[in-house]
Design a protein that fits this description.
39% helix; single chain; alpha+beta; Nucleotidyltransferase, domain 5; two-stranded parallel sheet
């Protein structure tokens, strides 16, 4: 989870990232950081992609991720939960890297007057820049969507 400053107050952003492709496959934003925000993000991911049964959802040990309400959402979606170690920031490096990129490349360069303006800008950043065009060194300097397309191609026997 991250938060974006606006003249109206914070806009909270929750993301679900595919570890293989680095693609943001689900996200949600709201003016509060309660468990329904993270539940909405994971449900959006399940709507956007076929999540394999017993796929792993990894997070830090925040109280919302550890709540019974969120555990029930993961169970409903047939996902397993993984949580990082206490006070070890490297366990959630992928999410921290994304939020750092978002803030560096977009948020720190703009003053948002409203949460809605920030929300629209973040959607454009994720959907049209980060997932489709932003090059990632860990992906051979390719964008996440290109890597996903490659993984979805039928494999032929050699």
């Amino acid at each position: 989870m991250s938060y974006i400053p606006t003249a109206e107050g914070w806009l909270y952003l929750e993301t679900v990232i595919d570890c293989c492709t680095k693609e943001i496959i689900g996200y949600a934003m709201d003016d509060n950081y309660r468990t329904p925000l993270i539940s909405h993000a994971i449900r959006n991911a399940a709507r956007n992609r076929k999540l394999e049964k017993n796929a792993i959802f990894h997070s830090d040990r925040g109280s919302n991720y550890m709540s019974q309400e969120f555990a029930e959402v993961l169970k409903e979606l047939h996902l397993r939960q993984s949580v990082g170690r206490t006070e070890i920031c490297f366990d959630n490096a992928l999410a921290k890297s994304f939020f750092g990129s978002l803030k560096n490349e977009r948020v720190s360069r703009v003053t948002y007057l409203t949460r809605e303006a920030a929300r629209q800008e973040i959607i454009r950043y994720i959907e049209f820049w980060y997932n489709r065009k932003r090059l990632h060194s860990a992906l051979g300097f390719r964008p996440p969507r290109e890597v996903r397309s490659e993984h979805q191609k039928p494999r032929t026997a050699a």
